[in-house]
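Lab notebook, bench 4. The sequencing result for the construct came back, and we need a structural model before the next group meeting so we can plan mutations. Quick request posted to the team channel:

Model the 3D structure of this chain.
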Amino acid sequence: MRNILFLCTHNSARSILAEALLNHLDAQTPTRRWQAWSAGSSPRPGQQPHPLALEVLQHAGIATEGLHSKSWDAFAAPGAPHMDLIITVCDSAAGEVCPIWPGHPASAHWGYADPSAGDAPDEVKREAFRQTLHAMGRRLALLLNLPPEKLQKNLLQETARGLSSH
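Done. Here's the predicted structure in token form:
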């Protein structure tokens, strides 16, 4: 099984959606190939997943138990799970200097607008969360359906980056 880490600045919306969605989708395949995780470059003290992220996931039938905001430092520390692929899902995190990841995993950037940004009413934000989840779902379905040879370490980065243009 390969480990994938989704990164965003606060680890409260987009990266949480990606972690939960990939684990959900992969659990429905005949052979699990991925374990998804998420983290943030600078989660705020006491940061929690955005309530609308959790609501949209639950409404889609995706488990939210165990989802919590955490720093990316947890995955660069000794004893952390070895990552095979790291994907930034927000432009801010993509521009930051990342830790040195053990094993030098492949990386890609799949940018999504922040569904929690601004001061729009909750119903507008809720729809933004739904749209983000659907957009991620399309890209993650492509990842899940890649042939095994595209997931070899020497091809994984090129393959993941190629999916970012869909």
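The first strand starts at residue 2 and ends at 8.
Will bring this to the meeting.
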